[in-house]
Amino acid sequence: MRWTALLLAGLTTTPALSATVLQCVPYARIVSGVQIYGDALTWWDQAENHYRRGHMPRKGAVLAFRPAGPMVLGHVAVVSKVLDERRVLIRHANWSVPGAIEEDVLALDVSDEGDWSEVRVWHSPTNRMGARSNPTFGFIYPDKPQLREFRPDPALGDSMRFASMTIARDDPEQETAPARKVASQPRLAMDMAALRYADATPSGRSLRDIIADVKRDAALR
Question: What residue stretch is flagged as signal peptide (predicted)?
C-alpha cells in the first residue's frame, strides 16, 4: 500500500489550489523580490511595463509557467543558478507535493528552439526528472537580482522543506535534452515527513492512467 501511494504521488505533478498550504506565488515573490500579486498565470502580463521579460535564464529571474493540464493557475519558480543554456536550478513551492518547498532543483529546457518555452522539472517523490513537459511564458527579470531567504510564515499557509540539493560527482545518469553536459548533477535528500504525507494522500486516478504514465516515463528515460 505504501509503495502504491508513493507511485501515485510520484507520477502526478498537481499543484494544490487549497489556501491552507504554501502557494508558489508568495514564495516566488519573497525569494525573487518581484512585486507582482495574483495568480501565477497573470504574472507574465502583469510584468509588462514594470519588469523586463525575456527567454534567457538569469539568476534571480522568475520563470512563469503557462496553465496546462491540472496546473490551471500556472506556476512561478525562481532561478537560483544557471548551469548552461539548457539547465538551471530553481527554487519553488507547491509543485511535487502540496505546500512543499524545493530548493535548487533541476529544470531542463526541452523546447525545439532552445527558448525555454517548454521545460521539464525535477520531481522529488520519484527522485528523477518529471515526465511531463510544461509550457512557459518566459523569464521575468527583477530590477536587482538577488535570492532572498524564505522563512516559513503560518499566515502564508503550511509548508515543509521537501528536498534540498547535494552534489554527486560523476553521476552516470545523463539527460539527453541539454546541449552539453555539466560536471555536477543535483541529487536530493528527501524529508521523510513528505513521504508520509504522500502515503496519506488519496488519489482518484485509474490504473489505466498510472500505466500510461509509467510507459511515458520509461520512454523518456
Answer: 1-18
Tens-digit pLDDT profile for residues 141-165 = 999 999 999 988 888 888 877 655 5
Cβ atoms within 10 Å of 189's Cβ, excluding its own? 9
Sequence letter at residue 59:
K
In the chain, what is the straight-line distance between the N-terminal and C-terminal CA atoms, in Å?
A: 26
d(CA 130, CA 95): 11
Would you say 116 and 102 are in contact if contact means Cβ atoms under 8 Å apart?
Answer: no
Interatomic CA distance for residues 183 and 171, integer angstroms: 9
Tell whether the model's pLDDT for residue 138 goes beyond 60: yes
Query: Which DSSP string do the residues of 75-95 spell out, in sequence order?
Result: EEEEEEEEEETTEEEEEEESS
Contact at 8 Å (CB) between 90 and 107? yes
Q: CATH number, domain at 214?
A: 3.90.1720.10
**Structural domains of the chain, count:** 1
Residue 51's SS3 state is coil
C-alpha cell belonging to residue 62: 522568475
Q: Are 90 and 63 in contact (CB under 8 A)?
A: yes
Beta bridge partners of 81: 89
- Report pLDDT digits (tens) over 165-182: 543 333 434 443 333 333
∠ CA 55-70-26 to the nearest 5 degrees?
60
> pLDDT tens digits for 28-40?
999 999 999 999 9
